[in-house]
Design a protein that fits this description.
Elements (H helix, E strand, L loop, with lengths): L6 E8 L5 E8 L4 E5 L7 H5 L4 H11 L3 E6 L17 H14 L5 E6 L1 H12 L3 E7 L8 H10 L6 H6 L7 H9 L5 H7 L4 E8 L11 H7 L1 H6 L2 E10 L6 H17 L5
Parallel strand pairs: 3-4, 3-5, 5-6, 6-7, 7-8
Antiparallel strand pairs: 1-2, 2-4
């Protein structure tokens, strides 16, 4: 597909509750379908400012020769208005993401997201057979501290942290994270992860543990601890040494190993 003119299209569609989801599709018209979730957005520079364009372009420049990349303003971000915070269960999130793929003309597609987006990616992979590959960044597929991160979200509900305020249009929208994590407390993680059968990868910064709301969330530590188990379950596991949780903003560090995994997955030469 090298040499093929790239498309760069935007779209918007209505979902339940009369809300809308805004998206952008970039890449060759017949490229491999790839949806990028948080922290990349359709309205990325509008949300994070002009300087953030280097981050977004760092991803697109390294992917769009082969992959048709779908970016989404989600959830309650940028030009989208969906979903209302009280409705943002895992079921609703997955429904909205699949509806966005439909709107962009995607059948089967790669899903790649980071942090909360990575947690949502696990829900999507366990509820749908439409993923051709799965890339989870900055969240452990096994041993996820859902109760702890919910406690942190509840603690910050009345005063969301600056990182959240940058993304959300108003502080009240922060309640959507509480709704989501409440909805996955009883998720059968071990069984669900064992049943995911598409090519799958997790990556993380080696210093990627975080402490939102005073809760110690051992992202890097948990993935390292369970690396062997994940590999036995068919996961590719990649640690980016000496980088913290913000490594997702460094396309030069993140994209090459993930791109290598995706290229092998689509060519059928993947070895774990």
């Amino acid at each position: 597909m090298e040499g093929t003119a790239l498309i760069d299209e935007v779209g918007e569609f209505e979902v339940a509750s009369g809300a809308t989801i805004h998206y952008r599709s970039v890449g060759p018209p017949n490229g491999v379908a790839l949806m990028l979730g948080l922290p990349l957005m359709a309205s990325h520079t509008r949300i994070f400012g002009p300087d953030s364009g280097a981050t977004l372009n760092g991803y697109l420049d390294r992917l769009t020769d082969v992959y048709r990349v779908l970016l989404v303003d989600y959830p309650n971000i940028g030009k989208s208005t969906s979903p209302p915070p009280a409705e943002m269960t895992a079921e609703r999130v997955c429904s909205d993401l699949l509806a966005t793929a439909d709107a962009a003309g995607f059948g089967k597609f790669v899903y790649w997201a980071y942090s909360w987006g990575g947690a949502a990616a696990l829900q999507l992979a366990s509820r749908s057979d439409r993923l051709s590959a799965l890339v989870v960044g900055g969240w452990p597929p096994l041993g996820g501290q859902y109760a702890d991160i919910l406690r942190a979200a509840r603690r910050q509900l009345d005063d969301p942290p600056p990182s959240a305020r940058v993304v959300l249009r108003e502080p009240a929208q922060y309640a959507q994270w509480v709704t989501f994590y409440e909805s996955v407390l009883d998720w059968p993680e071990q069984q669900a992860i064992g049943e995911i059968d598409c090519p799958r990868m997790v990556f993380f910064g080696g210093r990627g543990d975080v402490d939102p709301g005073g809760e110690d969330i051992h992202i890097a530590g948990t993935i390292r601890k369970r690396r062997g188990e994940l590999r036995r379950l068919g996961w590719s596991v990649h640690e980016i040494a000496d980088r913290d949780h913000s490594v997702c903003l460094d396309a030069a560090a993140v994209v090459p190993p993930v791109r290598a995994f995706l290229d092998k997955a689509r060519s059928g030469t993947l070895t774990r």
